Amino acid sequence: MRILLSGLCFTLALLLGAVPAAWAELTVCSSGCDVPNIVDADRTWAAGAYRVQEHIQVHPGVTLTLEPGVTLRFTTHEMGLQVGGTLIARGTAEQRITFTSDKTTPAPEDWGTILFTETAVGASFDAKGSYVSGSIFERCVVEYAGGGAAQGAIWVQSPRAPYVYKSTIRNNGVSGMRLVGPPKAGGGNEGVQEARVRESEISGNSASGYGGGIYVSVASSGVATLSGNTLSGNSASGYGGGIYLSVASSGVATLSGNTLSGNSTSYDGGGGGIYLSSSGVATLSGNTLSGNSASGYDEGYGGGIYLSVASSGTATLSGNTLSRNSANGDNGGYGGGIYLSSSGTATLSGNTLSGNSASGDGYAGSGGYGGGIYVSVASSGVATL
Asked: Are strands 300-301 and 345-349 parallel, antiparallel or unpaired?
């Protein structure tokens, strides 16, 4: 593998004797040097700009630590970082850690993905919810990914997801984060047992499918917490322009204090800001959604929020503010602010809706239904507004 660290050339003797020990595994030079692409023992990479020319693989049981100020510049369309062990990437406000393109004029899909495999070690937390150990992105930037077979800039197939905190995920040609858990034998994924994303900025990501900004599948009895994040300008061709969240039976999802603006879905889309399908327990509180849109060639559902509650599920929406969201489709738009379909129990209280709209393009007499809220409740369902 070739990882180039920008800077002055050093001899091997100087490298080993005069710079921090963490650098001893890497060669530092201005013209290019070879280092292994296999990380098969615990390693720490010191601050510097590294040019990555082969896929990095962190083996199971191994920890790769990136110190504040590290920049990894990926050189080709399918290049990426595969984590089978633990990735510790904890930057600071002054020295963030950056995963980016090596192109002079960078663009989405310039490089592949950061993939956490089934054996990767996700984050663990104490009883108060504070991070204790495991993989983490803190004050990181992940940008211009999505090339090759990538499905997310950060793509998680481990049972527990890395903790994402105060980080920026932007301008990727796939979902900014795709947290789906281990693959199933017959196809699909099991979902994650725990995922936490807090106080991060997710913008300008585009998914050909679901979940432009964040895609999360929560396993049975799993937990997902998304709080204090800002999502803007993300898009999906299907559901969940900003956030796509699926919660299995006995799973728990909490979305609180997030701000979503200018996110969108197209084709036959739903949930311009948030799409949430729950067979478990879902709580959305204190979120602000403005200027999100759901459009479709046939119908558009839930410009701000699309909420689908299964018979085993419960959902509570309280204290959210929705303004200027829109739903539009050739055959009708439903729920400019909120579209609610429930076979379970849904409770909406204390939400503020203003200036939301639903419209149709007039085919077969179609129009808009429920500019603020559109509610569809099955005979087994209960909705309290």
From this structure: unpaired
Is the CA virtual torsion 201, 225, 81, 152 positive or negative?
Answer: negative
Q: Report DSSP letters for 309-347, one per residue.
A: E-TT-EEEEES-EEES-EEEETT-EE-SSEEEEESSEEE
Give the integer Cα–Cα distance in Å for 254 and 101.
33
Tell me how far the alpha carbon of residue 188 is from its chain's centroid. 18
Of 300, 216, 213, nearest to 259 by C-alpha is 213
**Token pair for residue 55?**
């896929």
Per-residue pLDDT tens for 202-238?
999 999 999 999 999 999 999 999 999 999 999 999 9
Q: Do the beta carbons of residue 50 and residue 72 sit within 8 Å?
A: yes
The secondary structure of the chain in percent helix, strand, coil, rounded to multiples of 5, reads 5, 50, 50
On whether the pTM is more than 0.85, the answer is: yes
Cα 51 to Cα 5: distance, rounded to the nearest angstrom: 6
- What is the tens place of the pLDDT at every residue in 86-114? 999 999 999 999 999 999 999 999 999 99
Assigned token pair, 159 = 């049972």
Q: State the distance between the two ends of the chain, measured CA to CA, in whole angstroms.
A: 59
- 87 contacts 58 by C-beta, under 8 angstroms: yes
* CB contact burial 114-146 (16+ within 10 A = b; e otherwise): bbbbebbbbbebeeeeebeebbbbbbbbbbbbb
